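Notebook entry, structure prediction.
Reason for the run: the old model in the group folder had no record of what sequence produced it. Starting over properly, with the input documented here first.
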Amino acid sequence: MFTAVLVGIVLGGLIYFLVQRNKNQVLKVEDGWWGAGAPPDGEEDDTIRPFKVNTSDEELEDLHRRIDQTRPVAALEDSQFHYGFNSQYLEKVISYWRNDFNWKSQVDKLNQFPHFKTTIEGIDIHYLHVKPKKVPQGKTAIPLIMVHGWPGSFYEFYRLIPLLTEPSNPDDLVFEVVCPSIPGYGFSEAPHKKGFNTVSAANIFVKLMKRLGFQQFYAQGGDWGSLITTNMAQLEPQTVKGLHVNFAPIAKPSIQMILSMMFGRYFPNLFGFNDMDVKGVFPCKEKMLVNVLKESGYMHIQATKPDTVGRGLNDSPVGLATYILEKFSTWTKGEFRNLEDGGLTRKFSLDDLLTNVMIYWVSECIIPSMRFYKENLGKGLNPPHTKIPVVVPTGIACFPDELVYTPELWAKKKFHNIVSFSHMARGGHFAAMEEPQLMAEDIQKFTKIVEKK
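New structure, fully documented this time:
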């Protein structure tokens, strides 16, 4: 009896030690220097400079000339979007871009929110900083950083921002929103040195928020933005007050996850699966392997030889649009690959889609944006941050047409303090742009839970 008690105490102590050690793990990172050449002597210039998106007649003339010189390619009969962007429908998109799309008007739209730049770790960081026009008496604006992914941009958040900074419901929280461009994307300077990954970006964005005067803040992200904001929470769990993501793939499967994939279809209650989980996960071969392979060809290229393909895309606006807009079709809903037009304008307008493409075109950022895959995936799928749990309060918005579906059971392996897990009514990978109202409602719900705690 004494031996059994002793063994129990030892095992209990060991489990407690391992849990506490795991719980207290914090991601470590050294400050980098991503500017050209060697870092200068002395302190870095930390001034904040207003920025505006600009265009010119010369820029548009060059764009139109390149569009006019594109060489059409016939689409295969009955191919829809199964071979990529349908060439026949592409001609309609190109015609609209060349003859009807008004970039100067869209530039004015981009400048409706205040833009800024500041230098961090040797490179210029571009960001939006949108303060609420009015904060009701007795309330305080809640700082929130929102980070985009690829092939998106800060523009993904344009319809979402007003819903957070100027909510119509008087009971809702009022947010002060910061939307940076990931270095190498949009109007943020590209790193000049190898090795810039999501942890590097997270470190820069933590510094950005502190430079803006926020000692605590919330973070939200999808795609790369979800991983960058997750890394921010791992780097400074005392600074990131809450984390909200709409993309939460698991890098390394656990035994529980494997068992749920084997038996969850037949015994869903055993794993806490609801109908949406069963639909999202099963059949596993199709959902977790076949569909992922269909949509991940770009990843293999960008994780290995991004500069090769990127050089062609940087020269050809039509090539660039084809490469980017295909993702806004099939990543929004997989079934859209069965449509001649890829369902492209069922959720988005061509003006919004082409504005996102133009941000890539005028900033010439396609190559550095693609390099981000090599920096993050080129050294394997298990970097140190995948082994560190997230302990800050976490909200997950699970959209049904996301590329990789993650049930709450799987998410708990990484996120140890999930306070809100929402099965969203509709939406896919570009959720902030596609369903801004649903996203705003879920951010409100999550933040209210954390604030009450």
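Summary: The radius of gyration is 23 Å.
The old model has been moved to the deprecated folder.
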